[in-house]
Amino acid sequence: MKAGKLYRAVKALGKSEKAIWRTRILSSMEADSEAMAKVPFEDLVLIVYACFDKTYYMPDRKAIGYGAGKMAHKYIPCLRERLDFYEIWDAYADVENICGIPVVRPETKTRSFDVPIIVFIDDKISRYDVIGRYTQKGYDNIFYFRDYRKLLKNFAVFPEVKKYAADAAKEIIDEFYRQYELIEGPYLPVLFPVLKKDLAEKKIQNDYPDFHEAILKERLSKKITVNRIPENRWNEAMDILVQAKPENMFQMAYDIEIILQNLLANGVKTLERPMRMADDRPYDGFAVTEVVNEVLGYLLEDNEKVLDVIHTFRRLAEDSVSLMASECCFQMTCGQYSEALDTARHAMRKEPNSLLANEMFYRAACECKQKGIHVEEPVPAYDLAERFCWSGLNFVWCGGFDSQTGLADFSPCFRPLQCAARPEGEFWSGEDWKEFRRSVTDGSFRYCQKNQCANIVAGWLPRKSDYQEGWIRKILDGDLSVIPPIEELHFSYDGHCNLKCPSCRLEIQTNTSEQNAKLDELYERNLKPYMGQARHLTLSGCGEAMISPHSKKVLQSFSRKENPELAVELRTNATTVNPVSWNSLGTGKEVIRHITVSIDAETKESFEKLRCPAKWETVLRNLKFIQSLRNSGEIELFEFHVVIQKENISQLCDIAKMAVHYDADAVTYSRLINWREMPEEEYHEVNPFWYDHPLHDELVRELRALEELRNDIEAGRSALTKGRKKIYINIHFSPDPDASYDVIRKGRLKIR
To answer: Is this structure's pTM higher than 0.85?
Structure first.
């Protein structure tokens, strides 16, 4: 048994299996130790293993470091306090040593295969490339440096574990090692990094067809970019399929994993969505789904049999979204529409920002509605082919700033970032952006979350027939050689903020002077050149511009004289918007026409819980100041923004009344989005929009009351606005038959 291989197998287990094995190990030790219970399961297994393998007490091991970049320079000095390095391998080393440890080209000296290799590479794809290469050379004890640091820290409980570790614990670890097969190779695992060997007992009864490579290639060529697959990888996948007559589920899963690795490892995309997307990481989920569908459909030929296999695959891969998408497809093919909708819901819950999960839910929901099956969630109720979207035509979102490289992501849409276009060259006229423009003008909206996007769900998309002239008409007619002006920008790349709202982040983020310098450089190089033609700028949405040195500097650079057409929407938490901070913006405050305040609650207790560590009294005082700016005409629009979550369900109408009290022009309600990638359980707990959430019925009642209030205000029936100006209640996810994007943004919310 090798520790590194054991560790990788344990780490690859799903949560449910980890829980089962943890309970077995701790029960065998008969120890009631809080310290042991807190150790992550994969670390606990290695600690127990070290109790019986006298040669593998981790803090005493010598090791080889791989990689002499920034991470090695930063972390090797820390690790040296706990272990010794023979040397550091690096194929591109430009230094002779780090901390006195020689930096050499890989394998300049012969080493025992038992020597641990610690890989100092953060990039996942490069890291797997190194791990795969040295695994093939016979090295089993290979660790990622962040894992190794945690392991060393957790080994502090070793004496306590050793005191309780009996032969029974060793037998359980030996049994675990016998039960699982680690799938190793030079490529990232697609679905199954580890397989349970008892899957061989699950037999597959099937008469496999004679394999014809040309037939499968023709099927795949209609779905994915087959031309991107190198010939050697194609041949390796075909060799597996020639012999692929698996008799059990272990063989089937193993073959499918190796086939997927070979076919998809070179950035293969689907023909429908050829543009690189943010959630490819590194395999395109749509391509995984299509290959699984075509290969299993070809081998098994029976949709019911395919569905049975995919059910098993889902459990093995801990509900991979790609497999859920496959299951959803075959469920609809088999007429199981309600089941397909539930599968899509599960995918949405697991990865709510995944375009694949959203697309499958949209398809399943539309099928169910056509079949008369009730769908709880909102689905567009009109023909998208008749509409288009301004995103990608005159709108640019910039976010995802990387403080190491100084780069950010440029995207045609901010919700969420799906097409991550780096600003190399003239991105605005690049092929990716043309492809996105095609998608929002040809009626497919194939890169859009059609069941979550406010513009789509609320019915705000403009009609193509309303635009008969100019550059927009040419693009609508399919002329993508037309490069439109950038009129609307959204800067969401500066995360500097004084709050740690639980829906957004866990820690307060303060930029260093070096990070601010890189932000300044990013703006000067990639964004400032477009400000001359920009008519609207939103700032920021991911941080607090009023306290960020960089964002304030950007604002201070504007003036009504230099930027006569520019209208800035300032999004703020209102903790620091006061006369002093406002005047500190200098001429920049002249172009701020719209202030949106994130408010989220109407009571002190809820507000301070959701907007931590803001103080309710301070925010109320600053709301009065913003009210004075609006009433004096210094700004033209004052908006409240509310993220609906478990804590504030009962306060939705009260927040609208509060907005009226402060003379706001609008109050916008949005669904909770999992921006900070909460664990699935936590997101389900705080998000009452899930149809099976215990507070979902209460949310539905409150939203109906909010819609009634909106209708009464629009009809002039509400006593709330009697004698006051009309406020617009904007429910992002609720169809508004009397509104459109142009009406909202150019009419009721006059920001241009």
So the answer is: yes
